Structures
1.
Amino acid sequence: MKQLQYIIITILAGCMLAACHKLDVAPLNVIRDKDVFNNENGITAYMATIYKALPIEDFYYRNEGSGFNRGWEQFYHPGAICGELVGPYGSTYDAAGGFGYWPYGDIRTVNYLLENLPKNAVNFAKEKVDAWMGEAYFCRAYFYFALVKRYGGVPIIKNVQNYPEQPIEELQVHRDKEVDVWKFIAADLDSAYLLMPEKSVRARANRYVAAALKSRAMLYAGTIAKYGSANYVAGDARDQGYVGIPASEADGFFKQAWDAAKLLEGHYDLYKKKMDNKEQNYVDLFLDKDSPENILVRDYSLTSNTAHSWDATMTCRYMTADGLSRAYPTLEFVERFAGALPIVNPDGTPRRFNNTAELMQGLEPRLLATVYFPGATLRGRQFDTQRGIYDQFSGTAASELGLNPPNAQYRHLSGTTDALYQGKRIIGFTGVSTNGDDMTRTGFYVRKYVDYNRDQSQCGLYMSTQSWIDMRYAEVLLNRAEAAMELGNTTDAVTVINQLRDRAGAPPVTGAITIDTVRNERCKELAFEKQYWWDLRRWRIADKVLDNTRFHALLPYYILNEDKYIFLRELEPFQRSYTFEKKYYYEPIPGGELGKNPNLYPNNPNY
């Protein structure tokens, strides 16, 4: 970014120098076509503007409010409004309503390059012009993907619009059908694939980045066609094709997704640098800038003022430089890996542990690399997570969680880490408190992307610089597996899933495999990468998964008279409920845009 800022300054400086010697020059706040399209530095700076605006749902992103901009972003993680995580902020309603994303200004910037670069092609080698044109097609497809997954059909604008040169009636374009927008995205990505080279500089697109995005987008379209045809809200927008895709289109989109994913085979690979320790290998996958799995990344730095706050807000103040955590993995997410954890004996009584860390023994390495369990360590400190103390405990776990818990009179909770009971700290420094929400609600913390190499003093707000991996090869394999299952190719799906499971330290899939097997693997592998919200929507199961739903915690207690620990599967202490209405499968067209362009009506159903 420093280099790109320098390039922009250089262009402006050139204009200023000319202004010192001539009076008939353009205003200094206008960079003309010749300043951009006559030299490589100008185009590089122009492309940087486009890439900076790409709607990558990274560390900053939240479903509502500030959207892609900085501002309390980790407190509003999308996973925390759909059961992957829980936290005190954001609601399903707020997230589903969106934040008015309407990037047609950015699309115009791309279209301007597509129109004007060919006019200046004589200034450059053909392969450079082709690469830049390919990147522009890729970026335009990325913008439209962000639009169509939110609103369904939107206006397809291929040319630069000019106001006031064009009459307002020409600019007030109608929505295109949803299926046509998906096909437009596919066409742009095909153009990008043909024009771009096989390799690119870091954080820029090449032909295989385009193929990866196509696998993601076409899989989304295929599932909308298949499942959205059965689970939808009726209305004028649906009747006119602005939302919804004919079911007959599903297999065609699935085939495109599979074909695109297959193109990356042999060009990227799963991260396997430390397979002698699969837990550590999976941790480092998200921190190693040289990972062969990374397809498209976004980088951050302190000097460019782009650093983020993942380290400060994914773990508690005890582990950070006065950071605050607000989003915690649910027990339901953890149970995706191996079902119920071994916390109850065959007779129903809670299993006793010598320490909380014992529970981690034998669990899948990928799970332990994704979530911090009670007893885990970070920066030389232990997650001493404890909900409270029992003087004594008798009976079953189920009875203790019922309406009349038999051991309630022996239980001690606290809202402060300073409270002691018979010389023992009632709750841990990492929770679980009865007061406030800056410590875990569920017994777990997010581990994925947390940089264990950073000193605690370096883990404050806007001090983290690890890269966000927007696309990685594991996702492409999952796209391929899901598309294969939808097309009836179970053999390929099993092969791909077992590649991922081997890297994860999980046993291979054997026997019958279903679409739910593939979906569950996706939820585990891509946890907290801001995909689950969209997956629930495209599978059209969000209204079933989130139906006045409350999620669970795994809460450790110390048994004083036994000097042992137990875990109870309880509702998370604040007992938030989550409900997804069917109309939320699409966001409403932003009101301001409807006011400027009545041809965007009808709005999406029930808005």
2.
Amino acid sequence: MNAITPRSVFSDRLMLDVNGNSELSASRFGHLTRERANEVFDLSKATLGNELSVSDFWGNETASMSKAVTQATGLTYYDLRAPALNLFPTITPLRNRFARKQRANPGTALNYKTITSLAGSGFNWMGWVPEGTRAGAMTYTANNKSVSYVTIGEEDSLTDEAQFAAEGFEDEASMVQLRTLLKLMAKEEAGMLSGNATLALGTPTAPTLAAAGTGATLPALTYSVIVVALSQAAFMHATLAGGVPSTVSITPNGGGTPFVLNGGASMRSASATQAITLGQTLSATVPLINGAVAYAWYVGGVGAETLQFISTINSATFALPLAGARQAATVIAADYSVNAGLAYDGFLTTAFLNAPSTGSYVLALPTGVAGAGTQLTSSGYGSVVEVDTMLKTMWDTYRVSPTVIYVSSQEQRSISKLSMVGSGSAPLIRYNIDEGNANVQGVAGNVISFYFNPYSPEGGTKIPVKIHPNIAPGTIMAVCETLPPWYVQNETPAVAEVLTRKDYYTEAWQKVTRRQDYGIYCQSALAIYAPFAVAVITNIAPTT
């Protein structure tokens, strides 16, 4: 049995706390007597034993007051997991794959020379020479090349309050710089894919329109259609809700002259008109634009055209009532495709630029049926005709084979379907067999992760097929990352390199307020030495 502590113990303790240890006169103001101490405990017990109540203005008891404490009261511990979770992807396959080299004396541009062909004397492929006679002189083609260094950068800031308030949670100064670096890496990846310093998309021709069919709900009207071609950069930024990017003016942190970046779109085309009766579908096509991976379609009454669709083929159809509150075609008032003097040409841009002249393989599939386009074609024996043709052409012309094929999720699905099912074979299903329990588990969802290239002196090679996070649906890019050994070099035979004047570095700008500004910058040039080692297939409709 637990002993009950006498009330005198509590009284003595209370008297000690109030009166202290010294002997004080009982007549002193504030002196606590034993009698008053006992009264305090009696009143406390009585209060705790009765339900609290609320009185009205006149002192009349009106309601009971709850004494319960719940979670809603808020007297709880705040369990904050540290540090903050960075739930954003940073996928940079091109940046990761190609070498970065710091130049000793970089200057303003990287200059280099290429020898692109050797022509023998006499017949190009005959070397016969009579006894004692000299051969004729061969000739070769030499080219001077130059790539200017450009700067990429991103900035963020941290106030003193935010820095000190984050102590014990995370090192906020370090995290601000890390997140800024990750964002800059993502921007560099986009630049290596689609940077554009030289390839102007120009102005598309007016689209060709037609009306056909029954059952559509597009209201009767004479419709006007305008089209805008989109580069890879423009496609990455364009949305139906936000519109097609034209330009953005950037005010530098810390002052300075604002600068303008172009968003990557062409000038808008002239309009074409077509009368539609209720039930008909409006279709539109436009001739292919070299360098475009998508097209933005503006539809409406004459003079009231707004953005209604973004396609990754050069055609579109409209069967439903138009959406309201969309970007007007008049916003696209110039060719915004090039950032001359600020950017370098990425892999896609380089391929489009060099396709007519120095050999990059570029295939744009035909227009086909408006709105449906042209799909990839199964060879009938486990491959895709258009990819096979690309591989054969690269070998026949330049004796190279891609070492990686980059696709979107759409083309990965199309290639897998055509290679495994389109060839006439039954769908492939993997089986996991548990011999101990006699269980057989089927695993669906096969995908092509390698593509076999038979065009090689070694009897063929397997090419990884990888999803690139940015590449537009409807476009495939193949890259030979390293030239084969029969391209004799005096150093590593890289197809491309990132040459740096100053690789990633941090600028902690001088503080003029209680805020620290951080900038992450890189000064570099993307040198694609062998444009023929890059190939593109575009204007691909999804496989149905």
3.
Amino acid sequence: MAQFVNAKEDLVKEAIDGLLACSGGALSRLDGYPHIKVVYRSDWARDRVALISGGGSGHEPAHAGFVGPGMLTAAVCGEVFASPSVEAVLAGILAATGEAGCLLIVKNYTGDRLNFGLAAERARALGRKVEMVVVDDDIALPDLPQPRGVAGTLFVHKIAGAMAEDGASLEDVAAAARRVIENVASIGTSLDTCTVPGSPKEARIPVGKAELGLGIHGEPGVEQVDFAGAAQAMDMVLDKLRARAVDGPCVALVNNLGSTTPLEMSVLSHGLAQAGLASHVIGPASMMTSLDMHGFSVSILPVSAEDLSALATPVPMAAWPGLQAISAVSVTPLPDGLTPIEPIPSSNAHTHQIISQVADLLIGAEASLNELDAKSGDGDTGSTLATAARSLKDRLDAMPLADLTQLFPALGNELSQTMGGSSGVILAIYFNAAGDACAGGAPVHKALVEGLNRVSDVGGAQVGDRTMIDALAPALDALGDGMDAAAAKARTGADSTADIHRAKAGRAAYVPSENLKGNNDPGAEAVALVFEGLAKAMKG
């Protein structure tokens, strides 16, 4: 798998220097490359308790992204998924620690515990005042004697960091950190493993499965389960955490494990909000990732008023998303004039049957139209049409099926609301113009042609531009000779678009010609399918 890296051995150093170069001078590093990679606050005066964390890289923005006022003083970075050395941790301690001392916040992995622990002992021998806490918030494997440290670590960073920033003593900061560790719980799930730079990706999770409780280094989880959507995935995670959410305020940290899209994370957050498990939320955001893992984790922490205040205190680091209260969705009425005018329903069994059959045809063609569109666009034509078709079927009984002068504009209004992108507005223009012509006395054939003319006037597309018009125009020209003739012309027009290598309208106009060769325009293909379906329906 291709990745935006240069030499593997330079990956972490270049990433750190990229972070520092774009920090506006807020971050510095020790001059210890390649073995010592310590990021610290440029403004640090060693006049308060220092907070130091770190571990293997690959979890960005953790930990260097949280170095700054109110959180970490320094982060000690290892290579990807490898603990930093004793010397690197010691360098960070010596650079950051003043008379107030320092707190090491360590995730519960053997390498981190050993290297940070030995560095702490050496620093104490040199006269530094050092405390260490170990975060073990992962509840995926409840019988494990040494639970892993995962994204719940960020609660420790923020609460302890706020106290240290306010001048609290090392003893008080360490006690607060241990209290948070005692109460925080985390678990994650993923649809895929991660890709370690320079190594082949392990295809451990089959398609259609999700893995619950896998580690942030890609370690296998507690079980693989059937994947049935975002709601089920979030419910499964929250079921594991429910026992840890006590009465009173509770904060959920919703963490993107790497490559889950913002859209997916918002859907997952909707599930969290509906569950009612937490009163406040941090995220959704990428905070402690596992390279490019397609998954998420949730950490739960019951909080006091003081904890809430510490978590809510603003910090300047862009990686920290802040704390928000979970609230009911705010919904306000549509402005006057935008509320849809409901048509007066009327029945026509034949029209109902034809529209239903065409809708079923488009729903059945969803995958093939998406595949075709992916070759020349964004791969959503089938989904767009299928979504509108499903909605139209649900609304048929409310449609004026017995009156075409009302049915055409009703179809246009319905499609403008349910069909996204340019397709919805084009069909809204088409059917509304056809309705106007029909109301003016034009026969159906002429009314549909008038609709096409209006679309061409507004959108500018003509036959030969590689759009749906290449199939629609010849079909309407032949409609007077019967539906079979129209369907044949629509098919010929759609197939002709495979030989048009330069689109002049629509999204395909931005696509290189080599991507278009030999592939029908998906809009024209959909028109041909509709006319072929109409011809079949009218025979039946």
4.
Amino acid sequence: MSPTAAPWWRSAVIYQVYIRSFADGNGDGVGDIAGIRSRLPHLKALGVDALWINPWYKSPMADHGYDVADFRAIDPLFGTVAEAEQLIEEAHRHGLRVIPDIVPNHTSDQHVWFQAALAAGPGSPERERYVFRPGRGTDGVEAPNNWVSSFGGPAWTRLPDGEWYLHLFAPEQPDLNWEHPEVRAEFESILRFWFSRGVDGFRIDVAHGLVKHPDLPDLPPRQDPDDGQPRQHVDHPHWDRDEVHDIFRAWRKVADEFPGDRCFVAEAWADTPERLAAYVRPDGLHTAFNFDFLMSTWDPEDLRTVIDNSLSMLGAVGAPATWVLSNHDVMRHPSRYARKTAKRWVAGQRFQPEGPVDLELGTRRARAAALLMLALPGGAYVYQGEELGLPEVEDLPGSVLQDPIWERSGHTSRGRDGCRVPLPWSGQTPPFGFSPEDSPAEPWLPQPPTWGERTVRAQTGDETSMLELYRTALRLRHDHPALGDGTLTWLDTPTDVLAFTRAPGFTCVVNLSNKPHPLPAHTSLLLSSGPVENGLLGPDGAAWLEA
């Protein structure tokens, strides 16, 4: 990373902790703050700069914490506010920053505001904090419009008093009305509550949501997103509306009240790179997830187009790019890459795996993708277990699935549990060190019995392992002056090879073909994802070179 005075977040590698599945400290089968604290040495040794923690707030857990009942309290399942403060302090002593989730689009239906709205009845001031409307048709028996939930089914639920309320996710997650000044003031107060306790920033869930068209119009007929035409922005009634940026400009001012380069990262799904760049203008949020990179196929033209568009559009507003391969909402990338004929994943649709699974192929590509991602200008995100090469668990029994998508879809979509299986730390049998040895409780999702070879302990010291590849890559990324924020220059290569240089003296080559490719001139091989023999980089391989 270049030794400049640039803010830390411009080049940071941030590790995503899905708290339920990271480490169980108290033996109840669910990950918690105590578990995170016990594994901070692993994150330090891995070489990441910060950890982003999925929601830890008080919640009925209808959506595993994304239904928040109290933003100023930690759910007892995970710990206490005092424990959170201890975690923040200990992480800082390890040189790690802490970024919790914030969920502003909706609350839990058990939140004190929503309970007050239910009690107060139609037309009350309490209901104005949410999106309540009368129904259509005779006696209001039809929903106010045709909006659908992201989890399946209608986005409206009718109450016994006849009114309907909006929930773009589960019925237990009513949408807030962000036109209401009390809503805006409350969230600015919540930000200050946690900033004052030492958090270094927030990841904003559904940052492209919040604001709705005031008329709540019907959604137009869906257009084919895979028609081969360039994507165009669609004026959507509840996603990515221009007015949302006023909210985030106010949040930026709150962050700037505190010392230490506090930051925001947006989970913002946008139609085009230009729309995404609007979230990270100088007076707005600091960074945004680059889902285009995550959704790309293992195809050189697709990847290069995404990289070029991202760097161009984000650079135009002075923001760094961020790169991510997996997270808690999508199939893990070794399993996506294990499909030889996988199509580009389309925003707004669940990834639908097609074709036979070749995990050896998927793992080889995942190793190369890691080196590509960590060599690109800007920051990067590592989803827990990615450093272990964990695949998606695609054969979980239906009886153990807990994602609300499973029920809301009528058991037609298995949801996201396959990428949320608890991590394996040590040992040859479940729970693989996820819970204490004497724990009577089983992990909240079952682990594959074959994961003994994938544990942190099994991979430590094995130079061929995914874990040691990540550790070495992250060490080089921190040490090499060319890596982190900056620019790149593409080299001329065959169509199925990507190669670029970064000054001073660094070259990355990714061979996406099915045959060996000669490496360009270099003084030393810094790192490779697979075999390099006689100057030839193997198929689906990547290499870092000292020029």
